[in-house]
Design a protein that fits this description.
The complex is a heterodimer of chains A (563) and B (216). Chain A is built from twelve helices and 27 strands. With 563 residues, chain A is an alpha+beta fold. In chain A, a hairpin with a 6-residue loop joins strand 3 and strand 4. Chain B has a three-stranded antiparallel sheet. The longest helix of chain B has 30 residues. The chains are: A alpha+beta (563), B mainly alpha (216).
Chain lengths: 563, 216
């Protein structure tokens, strides 16, 4: 440095300026030092705060912006999206995100990520803030498991995060119905959990629905708990009339699941997490499910089955034992006529009682006897308003005996015509008979009879008849007189005696009242006795109390209270 | 001695050879004997050349280089717009953004003013300092021209700082759109100021001193 200036010293000119040399380090070198310090500190800070780089795979990255979108937990940013690329097969989006250091220990197997977008579902609106702030990725930190850096993002926000206490369960159903993620799980109409996910079974034959039940309500779920779909409105229009059932207003809109214990069963063990339950279609279905044994019966009708529907009740002496499962029309080409085979789904246990040893074969043997005794199925009008028909079985012993037959080992039970049909049939046969009455002959016979009668009457001796009548009347008169005198005797002799007896009874009652009345001595004494007795009881109680406190007093007598 | 003489003969008369010091305020030609002292006319302290010119310039150029790193790595603005996540921009990402959205002329202006100019200035100053330090005597005229270019163009680096200031002040639409200045803007402003001081502390007359003497 110094050589920059030393030449001026050597300057030969007359008025050469004196050159001052700066000694040591100039203060100006503090400037780059400070710049270095500030920049270095900044770089160190950003480097030291830099957490791990992770990749999250999503189906699509709607609303996520490279270098801008944040990863948040509890609405606090803990990472930032650095790049968005595609997976090798271009099927998925791979988001590379730089996490903060605080998040690093929680990037484990159980951590989950999902994109928060505005979401409006029935009964729930969420993520509206992202309308203004843009979408972001939300993270549910893992609690346990191995550290990892590659994650698969959830397509839907989990409605339950790891910080909520409770249990998960799995429900199997035939269909999803109107259930959705977030649909309420309620117990006695109180919301205790929600649907957190659903998907098709591996077999594709059923839907598995994952639910979460918050603590402490998960204690209510036991081995015998029954779940049913409480979605929407259940409207039943059948032979028994119209029935409307609903769980709650929100479940109408957004669907819901309810659970309860069947009334006849006991609770049993509290269910483990991830226990699988069957999801019944309705509460009613649970009761029907509890009958294990199923049987199929077949009946034929030779008449119109208009008003009979699949699902119509089958009753036995007015009690439901099953329902109609199918109605067909069968043309018999040989006889050139139509028959209507109706298949019935019967629960034999409803007839023969719950018996674990009962088999379908037993039921069929019983049926043989019943049919021999006149058991017949008949179409009945279940509901006058809707015109729904039901099938009722009952015994008609006066009908000609019929035998039970089997078609493909399905018992075919005999039927008889409906009452209306029977009535019209009877009426028809009556009219038939009336038709066959020989009215003309009858008229002629009558005429002949009357003529004969007329002749006979003319020969009756009227005079003799009149005398006989007079004699009879006289005898009757005498009898009446005798009855009259007897009644007189009763009124003069018996009546005063009764009056006297009544007087004596009244006097006796008065005496009794005097001796037992409220101010009578007997009453007074009674009250006194009662009072004494209650005192005696009281002192007895105090005695027992003191004995209870100091049992030794029974041996050593009552001692002074110790201070 | 002879080299001095030949130098003096090859070049026209200068204040230094004539034993005169120009007052840097009122430009009065003071006799060199007055140094160290004051200008007899305006009373300011007189010096033949800027004090510690090379040393100061070196320090400031070095500081500028250091500041150049965070100025370009740290975001200078954060834009919050309705429906989008907050977006932070560094200088280069801003340039790329403008280029991708088709505003290539704005991108060019920002790129030249914020990236090319400060870098160019720093490299020119470094070259000039190095030429003096290592006695590269050639082309004094071109080197002086280079210095004039840095002076001329240097002030335009501030454009980016002004753009940020104006944007931050103008775009304040609450929830709809907001632009906030980030630390990068401060680093960048510091960088520009440093380069300006560096250029200011450089004394171009040293180039001619060197040309006359063969060394500084």
């Amino acid at each position: 440095m110094s050589k920059h200036h030393h030449h001026l010293d050597e300057y030969p000119q007359p008025a050469a300026a004196a050159i001052r040399q700066s000694k040591g380090l100039s203060i100006v070198w503090l400037v780059p030092l400070m710049a270095l310090a500030i920049s270095g500190w900044l770089l160190y800070k950003s480097w030291s705060e830099k957490g791990p780089l992770i990749t999250i795979t999503f189906k699509n990255a709607e609303g996520i912006v490279e270098g801008g979108s944040k990863i948040k937990y509890k609405d606090v940013a803990i990472g930032e999206v650095e790049a968005i690329t595609f997976s090798d097969d271009m099927k998925e989006v791979v988001i590379k995100a730089r996490m903060d250091k605080v998040a690093a220990p929680h990037l484990t197997d159980s951590a989950s990520f999902w994109i928060v977008r505005p979401r409006i579902a029935a009964g729930r609106v969420s993520g509206l803030g992202t309308l203004f702030s843009g979408s972001f990725i939300s993270m549910d930190p893992g609690r346990s498991g191995n550290q990892r850096r590659n994650f698969t993002g959830l397509e839907e926000a989990p409605s339950v995060t790891t910080s909520d206490p409770g249990k998960y369960y799995l429900l199997k159903a035939e269909g999803l119905g109107s259930l959705d993620i977030g649909s309420a799980v309620s117990y006695r109409q109180i919301k205790v959990g929600q649907v957190v996910g659903y998907g098709l079974d591996d077999s594709g034959q059923a839907v598995s629905i994952r639910i979460f039940v918050n603590a402490p309500h998960d204690q209510q779920i036991t081995a015998n708990t029954r779940f049913w779909n409480a979605s929407g409105v259940e409207l039943n229009l059948d032979a028994t009339g119209i029935k409307l059932a609903t769980e709650s207003l929100t479940s109408i809109v957004s669907g819901g699941i309810a659970f309860d214990l069947p009334t006849e069963s006991n609770a049993g063990e509290v269910a483990e997490e991830n226990t699988t339950f069957k999801l019944y279609d309705s509460r009613k279905a649970i009761g029907e499910e509890s009958y294990q044994l199923k049987d199929t019966w077949l009946v034929y009708f030779n008449q119109s089955v208009r008003g009979l529907t699949v699902g119509a009740p089958v009753e036995f002496q007015g009690i439901k034992i099953g329902e109609v499962s199918s109605i067909n029309l069968k043309f018999e080409s040989i006889k050139m006529n139509f028959r209507t085979p109706v298949l019935l789904k019967i629960e034999p246990e409803r007839i023969f009682g719950r018996d674990p040893d009962l088999t379908t074969k037993d039921g069929h043997n019983f049926l043989k006897t019943f049919v021999a005794r006149g058991m017949r199925g008949v179409l009945k009008n279940g509901n006058l308003l809707t015109g729904q028909l039901l099938i009722d079985f009952d015994f008609y012993p006066d009908l000609p005996t019929q035998k039970i037959t089997f078609e493909n080992s399905i018992p075919v039970l005999p039927t008889r015509e409906t009452e209306l049909q029977r009535l019209t049939d009877n009426l028809g046969s009556i009219l038939d008979k009336v038709d066959h009455i020989p009215f003309q002959q009858i008229g002629e016979d009558l005429h002949a009879l009357l003529s004969t009668a007329n002749a006979a009457i003319a020969q009756v001796p009227v005079q003799a008849l009149g005398e006989d009548l007079q004699t009879t009347m006289k005898t009757a008169n005498a009898t009446m007189n005798r009855i009259n005198s007897m009644a007189d005797t009763v009124s003069t002799q018996t009546a005063p005696a009764i009056t006297q007896a009544l007087e004596q009874l009244r006097a006796t009652l008065a005496d009794l009242e005097r001796s037992l009345g409220s101010d009578s001595p007997a009453n007074h004494q009674l009250r006194q006795t009662m009072r004494d007795m209650s005192q005696a009881v009281r002192s007895l109680r105090s005695l027992s109390d003191s004995l209870d406190r100091r049992p030794q007093s029974i041996l050593y007598g009552k001692e002074e209270e110790s201070p | 001695m002879t080299s001095h003489d030949t130098a003096r003969h090859n070049f026209p008369l200068t204040g230094r050879t004539a034993g005169l010091i120009s007052c840097h305020i009122c430009h009065l030609a003071c006799p060199a004997t007055a140094y160290p002292g004051r200008c007899p006319r305006c009373g300011v302290g007189i010096r033949l050349r800027k004090a510690n010119s090379l040393r100061r310039c070196w320090a400031l150029v070095l500081a500028s280089f250091i500041l150049y790193v965070p100025a370009n790595l740290v975001p200078i603005t954060t834009t919050t717009a309705l429906g989008r996540p907050p977006h932070s921009d560094t200088i280069m990402s801003g340039v790329i953004y403008f280029m991708q959205t088709g505003s290539w002329h704005i991108a060019l202006i920002i790129f030249i003013a914020s990236v090319v100019v400060p870098l160019m200035k720093l490299f020119i100053l470094t070259f000039l300092l190095a030429s003096l330090h290592f006695d590269w005597n050639g082309r004094p005229r071109e080197r002086t021209r280079l210095y004039r270019v840095t002076e001329l163009v240097g002030r335009w680096s501030m454009v980016d700082v002004y753009v940020v200031t104006i944007l931050v002040a103008l775009v304040k639409f609450g929830a709809f759109a907001t632009i906030e200045a980030e630390p990068g803007a401060a680093y960048f402003a510091a960088l520009v100021i440093m380069t300006m001081f560096a250029a200011e502390s450089f004394d171009p007359r040293l180039i001619w001193d060197q040309a006359e003497d063969g060394h500084v």
